[in-house]
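User: Could you write out the 3D structure of this protein bound to SN-glycerol-3-phosphate? I've included everything you need below.
Assistant: Certainly. Input first, then the structure.
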Amino acid sequence: MNSKLVIAHRGASGYLPEHTMEAKAMAYAMKPDFIEQDLVLSKDDVPIVIHDIYLDDVTNVASVYSNRKRKDGRYYVVDFTFDELQCLKVTERFNPKSGKQFYPKRFPKGKSNFKLHSFQQEIELIQGLNYSTGNSIGIYPEIKNPEFHYENQKDIARIVVDILFEYGYKTKEDKCILQCFDARELERIRIDLQSNLFLVQLIENDEEVEKLYSYAKYADGIGPWYKQILDVKENEKWKFTSLVNDAHEFGLKVHPYTFRADQLSEFSSFEEMMQLLFYEANIDGAFTDFPDKMVAFLKMS
Ligand code: G3P
Ligand code: CA
């Protein structure tokens, strides 16, 4: 894990609906180092590759199963069996209230025919492609919302760790990085579930940035929001927080999320964003919706 890593965030999600097999196959062809899988359990305990515990912002669940929403008006992955989920069409992310597409310039909402799939099916796609192409692209699964799963009598971490073991992902050398926002759960994966995988602690708020010392006891890296690395811009030049250096001192790799060429709030170009964060802030890898652009940038620089 020494060179700078490209992590295909939800696949090639800048070009095809996130987390579809098509987005994963396209990402694979762009030759990133890793392809990401967000995981949520179905009613019958199948890990589904989907970003949210909800179905209604990336599928047509509201028209197929209109009477299956909860009191809050949302449709939950955990309320449907794997077979039932197969009846849904997946689409580009949209706001379920307004129906508006989240990224208007991406793949058109409602077009073509995409489906949900299991974690095992995606592992078999990536391992199959590794076999047929001779490449060695890794997986980067994220356990989503363990607390919510416990509330629904489910232990997602145990199920995912067992599947990884079964498919040959056992050590830090096995091209699998396991990530989670929940620090207690990631520590449990290391200590109680005795996983020897490369573990990344995701971070989303500033208090968590202060806890590097405790993360270093069980994790191998952190995944912060990239904005937590940016400090202030003075005389047209960005200054950085101490996060990357501090993490490196604790022996932690730093893989920030999410680099989007079509959402460049602070930067004048995607290249500027990558140049600053990879080479001036010295990050070790990054999640991107545009793996082709990051692979090309790192090859040139
Ligand atoms: O897991 C890294 C990054 O994907 C975290 O953000 O919300 O896209 O899962 P999210
Ligand atoms: Ca993720």
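The pocket of calcium ion (ligand 2) is lined by residues 36, 38, 142 (CB under 6 Å).
User: Perfect, thank you.
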